[in-house]
Amino acid sequence: MSSPIRKFFARFILPRWKIALGLLGSMLVYSGLALPIPVLFRIVIDKLIPEGRLVELGWTAAGLGLIALMQGFFAFLSQHLTVLGEQTLVADVEKTLTQHLLALPWAFFQDREVGYLMARVRSDAEVAKTFFLGVLTLFDNAVFLCAGAALLFWLDWKLATAALFLLPSLALASRSLNRRLQKLAYGIQEADALASKELEEGLSSVLTAKLLHLERWIHSKIAQAIEKLKIVNIRTNAVGAMAGGVLTFLVRLGPALFLSVGAWQVIRGQLSLGTVLAFVSFIGYLYGPAQAIITTNLGLQRARVAASRILELLEEPVEPQGGLPFVVREGRIDVEGVSFAYPNGTLALKNVSLHIEAGTKVALVGRTGSGKSTLLALLVRLFTNYSGTIRIDGQDIREVDLSSLRRQVVLVTQDVFLFSGTVMENLTCGDPAISEEEVLRVTKALGAHEFILALPNGYETQIGERGVKISGGQKQLLALARAVLRRPKVLLLDEATSAMDSETEARVWRALDFLLPGCTVVLAAHRLATVQAADWIFVLKEGRLVEEGTHGQLVIKGGEYRALFEEQLASARG
Fold first, then answer.
1. What secondary structure does DSSP assign to 341-352, as a single string?
2. For an engineered disulfide with 333, which of 126, 356, 391, 550 has Cβ 3.0 to 4.6 Å away?
3. CA of 20: how far to CAs of 23, 82, 133, 138, 248, in Å?
4. Helices marked H in 103-212
5. Residue 494's CB: how many other CB atoms inside 10 A?
6. Nearest CA to 126 among 226, 203, 196?
7. Residues 298, 141, 179, CA angle at the centre, nearest 5°?
8. How far apart, in whole angstroms, are the C-alpha atoms of residue 505 and residue 517?
9. Each residue of 32-49: pLDDT tens digit?
10. What is the spatial distance between Cα 255 and Cα 250, in angstroms, rounded to a whole number?
11. 6-13 CB contacts, 8 Å cutoff, 24+ apart
12. What is the pTM for the complete model shown?
């Protein structure tokens, strides 16, 4: 058993040892009940029928009926325990994976699509569950095979010895196919994840597809991914079918050969007919488990790959937890010599240094790609692989407790995500400390209360993907309210009011003074009308800090800010 498989077994199979033990016991009893049947038939054929012993014949028939009844019960019990074990395993794997994924750093998600990760969680967990029954099936059939071999030797050691010669052929056939199936299994899991990614992306882009008439192009991408999955599935199933054919031939060959040899010995008077029939039946108890062991082992190759892929995700390093206690008392921010490049090598910030006074409202402005959003992302430690230092109230944010940092420093982005649920659930996010009175106070101050009441069920209206649709500006109001309800000491806004009209935006700024007194607010914006009232403005260009000052100072200075200001004035007039 390889190291990843041992880890998977220890982490997800062993905790279900009670279910596994019950299932194994049930399987062994079910298999064991079949062992006396050929012996009983031998007695019936060789003794009871020739001697006309009807009473014993009746008791034997009753015994066979009792065996059938008990096998039916243990078949039900085995099936029930199998479903119980497999489904608890799948649920455990999926919950463990999602918990781990949510703890991974933001950089992990930069080059991995949501649909792909969803498929990794669901598909790999579903395939890996076959380990639960598969391992027990191997053990059960190994015991049954040994018992069958012992009974064969009890009946006739010469025939039994000959019967064992076919087993190495079965083992060799299995080994030659194992490695090939393992490689193909990895291809299936990866192709399935990619097909799910394309499907999720395609269905999420329906509006864009219709507006730009891209239905054929999107469908072609989905179809190509599905076609690749189909080809890999066909190849894998072809190998599996070939394996099944070879195994079936070898398993069927044994009884045919030994029936012929046994019949010849009956004719010569060396064996009784009952012994031959019992032997042929026990041959099934030898080759049947052998075939089941090999077939199960072949089927486990895909489960091995799925288990390895699950552990591969679980071994991704999570965001570092712990660190120094972190409390924002004032909200002073110092950025010193910070440079940062994304994983693809793009240099986003170049030796940026700036100071933000506590309790002030400052703005970051610049053209697209100037580094505004990147700097805000660093302030909440979405990335840590930057040079230089970022301090809040003198504390290096890379050394403090991450959960404490993000409770007190909150970032609101332009792209708002609303969960499937009610408006109230989206605002409180399950936090029992947020009262309904506090929610109403915040939404009224921000100007969101009116449009919420206008919804079909007010604060209990279902929103999100399957709920009532609301405008971009309304989404941003809810996102701001959600952030304010966390009572941050530092509030970071990345184009967080870009979809609002100027009147709503002005009301929001006034409300923030009232709702979050003393809070340091850092705003990144393209629209300069938004930032004119800021206490201080930092101007970024191509990742560098090129200017800073008030709106009036920067306009008089005549640099990058003045150029941006004049461009927007000209655009507004034109």
1. E-TTS-EEEEEE
2. 356
3. 5, 8, 8, 13, 29
4. 114-128, 130-155, 157-163, 167-204, 206-211
5. 21
6. 196
7. 15
8. 18
9. 787 777 677 767 777 777
10. 9
11. 7/311, 8/128, 8/131, 8/307, 8/308, 8/310, 8/311, 9/131, 9/135, 12/89, 12/92, 12/93, 12/96, 12/128, 12/131, 13/89, 13/131, 13/132, 13/135
12. 0.77
Residue type for position 95: K
C-alpha dihedral (356, 358, 359, 360), degrees to nearest 10: -20
In angstroms, the CA 75 to CA 83 distance is 12
Instruction: Render pLDDT for 351-392 as a digit per residue (tens, 0 to 9).
Output: 999 999 999 999 999 998 899 999 999 999 999 889 999 999
CB 145 within 8 A of CB 290: yes
In angstroms, rounded to a whole number, what is the distance separating the alpha carbons of residues 23 and 43? 32
Whose tokens are 């100071």? That residue is 355
Name the one residue in this structure whose structure tokens are 């598969």: 134
Q: What is the spatial distance between Cα 328 and Cα 331, in angstroms, rounded to a whole number?
A: 6
What are 103's two structure tokens? 């703890």
Q: Where are the domains of the chain?
A: 3-314, 333-415+488-573
Smallest CA-to-CA distance from 272 within 47, 35, 40 is with: 47
What would the DSSP string read from start to end of 69-113?
Answer: HHHHHHHHHHHHHHHHHHHHHHHHHHHHHHHHHHTS-GGGGTTS-
Q: Give me the phi and psi of 550, to 5 degrees please.
A: -80, 170
Architecture of domain 3-314: Up-down Bundle (1.20)
**CA 116/CA 386 separation, integer angstroms:** 28
Residues ≥6 apart with Cβ < 8 Å to 17: none
Q: Is 549 left (phi over 0), alpha (psi -120 to 50) or beta?
A: left
Give the CATH fold of the 333-415+488-573 domain: Rossmann fold (3.40.50)
